[in-house]
Amino acid sequence: MNVHRRIQHLCRLALLSLGAALLLQPVTPALSQATRLSDIAAYQGPDRQKRLVEGAKKEGELMFYSSIPVEDIAVLTATFDKKYGVKTKVWRADSESVLQRVVNEAKARRYDVDVVASSSSGIEPLHRERLLNEVKSPYLDDLIPQSIAPHREWASVYLNTIVQAYNTNLVKKEALPKTYRDLLRPEWKGKLGIEAEDFDWFAQVVMGLGEAQGLKLFRDMVATNGISVRKGHTLLANLVAAGEVPLALTVYGFSAEQLRQKGAPFDWFIIPPLIARPTAAGVAKNAPHPHAAVLFYDFLLGDAQPILAARNFVSPSRKVDSPFTKGPLELIESAEMIENAQKWQDLYNKVIVLPTR
Hints:
- There is one protein chain.
- This protein has helices at residues 3-23, 28-42, 48-59, 70-84, 95-107, 120-128, 199-209, 211-225, 233-242, 253-261, 290-301, 304-310, 334-353, and strands at 61-66, 87-92, 115-119, 132-133, 155-167, 192-195, 228-230, 247-252, 266-269, 274-284, 329-331.
- The protein has 357 residues and is α/β, with parallel strands linked by helices.
- Strands 1, 2, 3, 4, 5, 6, 7, 8, 9, 10 and 11 form an eleven-stranded mixed β-sheet that branches.
- Helix 1 runs parallel beside helix 5, helix 6 (120-128) crosses helix 13 (334-353) and helix 7 (199-209) packs across helix 13.
- The two termini are 20 Å apart.
């Protein structure tokens, strides 16, 4: 089962169980803890940073649950620990497992986690069950508005951009399509490729075009020119570089840029708008180390951004230069994917995947 569908199913079962469990248990300690965090998270006075650092040092540690790659977490936490003298404990898993653990611990009235970072489709359900706390971080002003949830209980730490890529020996730059409708032209017959599970990208593009018009366009594209469906974004990018797929519709931006810099006959471009999957962070409602939690959240949105950019992640911060965020940008709608993952996966299979087999 696809990760988005698993998250959707998990939300419906585990969160219903959570709601029922919370009604049956005493709430005084949790409410007290949450109230204290709310006060800290909302404070915006001139001595905010000083208060956070002093409080975090007294708390001494924090617990971080995340799906960020292990080696990147290690760099971030080492930097934070060295700067503030606060020990960061980490539990790392995929987004689905992170969500499940937070939900199960809340159900059991066990409050270990301070900060959560995972895919937005894995963190949005925590907002829906009131397991996150909004933080009035000054670093939110540096982020592009699309990278902050409307309710402001989570914000993007980095963006997995999805770009279009082409083999420079087989496709001339001046001939590149400027719109998705351009892909209906006969010169693209037998030249297009796409990743096998990018139904959320497909949903975002189709909704942007208008659902009926977008679906018709992709059906016509497959019928007239065909699309080669490949499993894995790295494989698809390498096939473009090798010339087996002259033009790919869904390649991760960081891998595209890496291949380009290595001198392969490869380049990338964007059919606007640029679509991206956010990886986001939020502070747990009952964080046991509230000062450290808010301080670490600030760190992820602020000092961590150039560190992540140097490691080939796309930063949502306007203070960090990126070739991926200069034009129109749309983040995949996490709420839409939670509610309608089955619908869009079925449509993707019917319109894109099955006709190519």
